[in-house]
Automatic annotation (TrEMBL):
It comes from Thermobacillus xylanilyticus. SUPFAM superfamilies: P-loop containing nucleoside triphosphate hydrolases. It holds the Pfam family ABC_tran. It comes from the Bacteria. It is found in: Cell membrane. Residues 2-249 form the ABC transporter domain. Gene3D superfamilies: P-loop containing nucleotide triphosphate hydrolases (3.40.50.300). Its main location: membrane. SMART domains: AAA (SM00382). The lineage of its organism: Bacteria, Bacillati, Bacillota, Bacilli, Bacillales. It is a peripheral membrane protein. InterPro entries: AAA+_ATPase, ABC_transporter-like_ATP-bd, ABC_transporter-like_CS, ABC_transporter_ATP-bind, P-loop_NTPase. This is ABC-type uncharacterized transport system, ATPase component.
Length: 264
C-alpha cells in the first residue's frame, strides 16, 4: 500500500542551521493499517507526513504507493489518492465558500479532470447524506459559508472532505490538537468510525499518548529522524502509557521531550 525506503531529508545543508530531519526512514503500511505516530519535538513527524503527501521531496529514498513510485509526483496529483487533515481547522477548507462548494471541490479532486464544480441536485443529495454521517447537523447547512463554522465543525468537514472519495492513504497530522477536549473527542470518534467503515489505510501523528495506544492497530515511535520502535497489534493491545514512555526512554536513552504531550 505505502512503502517508504531509506528516506533522508536535510534542511539548510552546508549552513550553520543544517538539520537532519529524517535519517533513513523505512516503513511499510499494509492495506487497512491504522498507524499512530508519536515522538519528541523535532523528531521528524511533520516532515515525514510532508514527504508522503508530496509537499516536500526527500533528498534520498523513495515513496511508493500501490507499488507506484510517486517520489517525484507533485502534491496536487498525489492528492487524488492521499487525503490529509491538518492540525489547523482553517487549513483544510475554503472559508468564503459554502459547505456544498467545499464538498464539490473535494469531490472533483477525487474524480480527476473534466468535472464541473457546479452542484447538481443529485450531488447535493449525496453531500447531504455524507454530512449526516457526521451527526452534527451540517446536512441542514449546505449553503452556509464555511468561515462561519466552529473549529470542531470545520475539522469534521475537513475530515469528511479528506475521506469521502476513499483515498488510498489518509494522513492525520495532529488533527485534534487544536480543539477543546469535547470537540477533540468528537473528531476522534468520527475518525474511528470513518476509518473503520471505509477500511482506510491511515497514518496519524498525535501528542496524546492514550489516543496513540487506543486507536489503530500499530504504533510507531520516532526520535531524531528515525523510527525507533514499531509496535505490532498484539503488543499494542496490552500497552499502557507508562510502559510506552518507559520503552521510549529505554530505546532512545532519554525521556520523551514533547512540549505538547497529553498523557490521556
Ligand atoms: N522548513 C524547515 N526548514 C528548516 N528546518 C526545518 C524545517 N522543517 C522542519 N525543520 C527541522 O527539522 C526537524 C524535524 O522537524 P519536524 O517538524 O518534522 O518535527 P516534528 O516531529 O513534527 O516536531 P513537533 O512534534 O515539534 O511538531 C526539526 O529540527 C525542525 O526544526
Amino acid at each position: 500500500m505505502l512503502r517508504l525506503t531509506n528516506i533522508y531529508k536535510l534542511f539548510n545543508p552546508g549552513t550553520v542551521d543544517e538539520k537532519t530531519a529524517l535519517a533513513g526512514i523505512n516503513l511499510q503500511l499494509n492495506p487497512g493499517d491504522f498507524v499512530t505516530v508519536i515522538g519528541s519535538n523535532g523528531a521528524g513527524k511533520s516532515t515525514l507526513m510532508n514527504i508522503i503527501s508530496g509537499a516536500m521531496r526527500p533528498d534520498m529514498g523513495d515513496v511508493l504507493i500501490d507499488n507506484q513510485n510517486v517520489t517525484q509526483m507533485p502534491e496536487f496529483k498525489r492528492s487524488i489518492f492521499i487525503g490529509r487533515v491538518f492540525q489547523d481547522p482553517m487549513a483544510g477548507t475554503a472559508p468564503r465558500m459554502t459547505i456544498e462548494e467545499n464538498l464539490a471541490m473535494a469531490y472533483k479532486r477525487g474524480q480527476g479532470r473534466g468535472l464541473r464544480l457546479g452542484v447538481t441536485r443529485r450531488r447535493r443529495e449525496m453531500f447531504r447524506e455524507q454530512l449526516a454521517r457526521l451527526g452534527i447537523g451540517l446536512e441542514n447547512r449546505l449553503r452556509a459559508k464555511v468561515g462561519l463554522l466552529s473549529g470542531g465543525e470545520r475539522q469534521a468537514l475537513s475530515l469528511l472532505m479528506a475521506t469521502f472519495t476513499n483515498p488510498r492513504i489518509l494522513l492525520l497530522d495532529e488533527h485534534t490538537a487544536a480543539l477543546d477536549p469535547a470537540r477533540a473527542d468528537l473528531i476522534t470518534r468520527l475518525t474511528e468510525t470513518i476509518v473503520r467503515e471505509q477500511r482506510l489505510t491511515t497514518l496519524m501523528v498525535t501528542h496524546n499518548m492514550e489516543q496513540a495506544i487506543r486507536l489503530g492497530n500499530r504504533l510507531i515511535m520516532m526520535d531524531k529522524g528515525r523510527i525507533i520502535l514499531d509496535i505490532d497489534p498484539d503488543k499494542k493491545k496490552s500497552l499502557t502509557v507508562e510502559r510506552l514512555l518507559g520503552e521510549f526512554e529505554q530505546i532512545s536513552g532519554h525521556k520523551l521531550s514533547d512540549d505538547r504531550i497529553v498523557l490521556g
